Amino acid sequence: MDKKMHDKGLEVRKAVLGEAYVNNALKNVDDFNRPFQEMLNEYCWGAVWGREELPRKTRSMLNIAMIAILNRQHEFRAHLKGALTNGVSREEIREILMQVAIYGGMPAAVDSFRIAREVFAEIDGKA
Prior knowledge:
Blueprint: H1 3-17, H2 19-27, H3 34-48, H4 56-70, H5 73-85, H6 90-104, H7 106-123
């Protein structure tokens, strides 16, 4: 493991998803999933998210679309919050999900719009 890249990734992960979210994920680390968490921090968050060729806002927009199409609701919720942190507006999120509907399918968009509304309600204190 590249400790420097791992630590960079952990820093980026916390900045995007929030320290509480990441700390909660890390408190569940055990001998079984430790190698996976290390790989996630080093490669996903360090080697890719840590690159400067795309701004975090753009990376968040790409992730929203891809994760919505994959219909990974838990990850979508986390990355939706991260996208808002990275400056993606609700209007931009709506447009991304409209694109998902056409290119990824209506069922994925239906679930993603529902989750987005739930996340917005949480943030607005209406949940």
